[in-house]
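Quick start: what a row looks like.
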Amino acid sequence: MIDVAREKKLLFMEAMKPPFYPLYWRLREHLQSDPIGEIGLVRAGCSMANVSLDHPSFSMEVGGGALLDIGIYEAFRAVDWLGEALDMQTIGRLGSTGVDVFASFSFNVRHERGIAQLFCGLDLQGCGDALIGGTRGTVSILENWWNPVRATIAYTDGRKIELDESFTGGGLNYEAAHFCELLRAGEIESLIMSHATSMRMIAIIDAARRDLELRFSFESE
């Protein structure tokens, strides 16, 4: 899809809502002026025990599973703060329909301190916060981190900064507004949700699926 969009000079952007929330914007602005040092750790997870078995997430035919439905958001969080993943390690299990129902995956990145620890699931309850760790402090994005409203920044010098930014609608409205701005400006790629970011995210999920030996029936060898 990216290759065709570039060839035809058409606007293409993956629909990924987290980077467009007001809290996320404010957090980025704050860390530019008051950083937490070199960021080397991202931790995030979400597992939902109340997903009905007739939900598409449990379907092999439509490419279901926790990794593609939930884990992709965590992959974005890691890529956004750490960059390209290396040395992937995944443990998890497949459910009765053949898709992954729980996965815990971690990886190193290109610089020395970079490590991501992520999990996603469809049969256990594990919603929570996300953590971004740096050499001079940490950021805790409080529950629910994928629809962020509050964050706490704790510095090694003892300072604590609380950020609180509400949002309107379901969150998809922010990414849609950004896409419309790009369209009106004649752009073909978003700098916020770039093609390279999308490729790095799906590479993480594909590597995790290989570790779990999960292949959908419609995929080629």
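That is the whole record. The chain has one domain: 2-211. The chain has five helices and eight strands.
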